[in-house]
Amino acid sequence: MSIAVLCGLIILVLLVIMLIAGVPIAVALAVSSVCAILPIMDFDVALLTGAQRVFSGISVFSLLAIPFFILAGNLMNKGGIAIRLINLAKLITGRAPGALAQTNVIANMLFGSISGSGTAAASAMGSIIGPIEKEEGYDPNFSAAVNIATAPTGLLIPPSNVMITFSLVSGGTSVAALFMAGYIPGILWGLACMLVVYFLAKKNGYRSTTTFKGKEKLNVVIQALPCLLMIVIVIGGIIKGIFTATEGSVVAVVYCLVLSLVFYKSIKLSELPKIFIESAEMTGIIIFLIGVSGIMSWVMAFTNIPAAVSSALLAISSSKIVILLMINIILLIVGTFMDMTPACLIFTPIFLPVCTALGMNVIHFGIMMIFNLCIGTITPPVGTTLFVGVKVGQVKIETVFRQLLIYFFAIFVVLMLVTYVPQLSLWLPSLMGYV
Q1: N-to-C CA span, the chain
Q2: Per-residue model confidence as pLDDT tens digits over 391-409
Q3: 3-class secondary structure for the chain?
Q4: Could you tell me the sign of the dihedral formed by the alpha carbons of 132, 138, 141, 147, in that order?
Q5: Lowest-confidence segment of 240-244, 250-254, 272-276, 368-372 by average pLDDT
Q6: Number of domains the chain is built from
């Protein structure tokens, strides 16, 4: 048995056992990685090298973008942004079949991209739109399914922390290029779900009766404009080279503070310490994960595991279509029981060499991977967005899941398009000169 296979099996077996036993994912990553290198290295050396990899893994300037984008998202979540975006989405959908559900889709796309969190979008939008839909005769399971199915779109539409993580683990892929690449796939996800909503709403007779009149329309746009302007300022500044992604995250925080404290006056100064603490806790979890994943990345590179996986996949088939389909299936399965950040950290070093050997662009691969892992957030048993959506919608998971199946089909169709039509991911980055 080769060293690569032996080390790979040790990592896999120990990781699965510890995850089943409820060991925190970061600890499981560190322990399994150190144990995997023991057959060819002394324990003291392995432990010391592992510690060095943790610190070198987090001593990266670009990682500063993550805590600031988290803080900006939390400020937006608490700052009364949701209701303003919902009103704008209502204005866009008008009186189309299932207008309120269509509103939910658009609002999730807008709010998710601003906050950078699918769970925040599901919670904010579901708690506000859900009761209104119930009053107008919508089935709560239908409403919850729409909310859950579209909440992850904001993880593809930038700014997105998981894209920054992928940039780091893939060897410094341009964050701006990844941001631009996420727009079309994220919008296609939302549009596919809107199409499903249209036919289901028409079948069930769901139609909104509320409309906005002249001055109300203008007021809705004016109220929502400052929220949308943040996306233009931050993403526009990064793309134009005015500031880096890290500097852009600080701009986002300052903008959110001004918007929430001065313009909307929706957050009090006394509430800021709690928001800072919540952001710090979330940052600590993500940064620690990135640090310990550095041990696994080093072990894989040292033992040549990615090359072994690449050879194994290429031995099964030489067809690019077949191999990409297998990778998609594996990532979909992984996403059902692992959160996005650790999954991205673990599987990028494994599958990226395979895909680049097939001639796949790194940016295209990154979007394909993130798309797969986004689906994992709305599937059991570890779908955090699914559980938040069920709780907010006050429905049972088994009844909602049946309603979600048709959305999963529509989302899977979009995933296949994103996988096999590279231009859906690469057109905007190439337009901006990144490809």
Answers
A1: 41
A2: 888 888 888 888 999 999 9
A3: CCHHHHHHHHHHHHHHHHHHCCCCHHHHHHHHHHHHHHHHCCHHHHHHHHHHHHHHHHCCHHHHHHHHHHHHHHHHHHCCHHHHHHHHHHHHHCCCECHHHHHHHHHHHHHHHHHCCHHHHHHHHHHHHHHHHHHCCCCHHHHHHHHHHHCCHHHHCCCCHHHHHHHHHCCCCCHHHHHHHHHHHHHHHHHHHHHHHHHHHHHHCCECCCCCCHHHHHHHHHHHHHHHHHHHHHHHHHHCCCCCHHHHHHHHHHHHHHHHHHHCCCCCHHHHHHHHHHHHHHHHHHHHHHHHHHHHHHHHHHHCHHHHHHHHHHHHCCCHHHHHHHHHHHHHHHHHHCCHHHHHHHHHHHHHHHHHHCCCCHHHHHHHHHHHHHHHCCCCCCCHHHHHHHHHHCCCHHHHHHHHHHHHHHHHHHHHHHHHCCHHHHHHHHHCCCC
A4: negative
A5: 240-244
A6: 1
CA 431 to chain centre: 24
Amino acid, res. 385: T
Exposure pattern of 24-58 as b/e (b: 16+ CB <10 Å)?
ebbebbbbbbbbbbeeeeeeeebeebbeebbeebb
Whole-number pLDDT of residue 343: 83
Eight-class DSSP state of 360: -
Q: What range does the domain containing 52 cover? A: 3-431
Q: Helix or strand or coil: residue 94? A: coil
d(CA 371, CA 419): 10
**Would you say the pTM of this structure is higher than 0.90?**
no
Q: What angle do CA 259, 261, 266 make, to 5 degrees?
A: 90
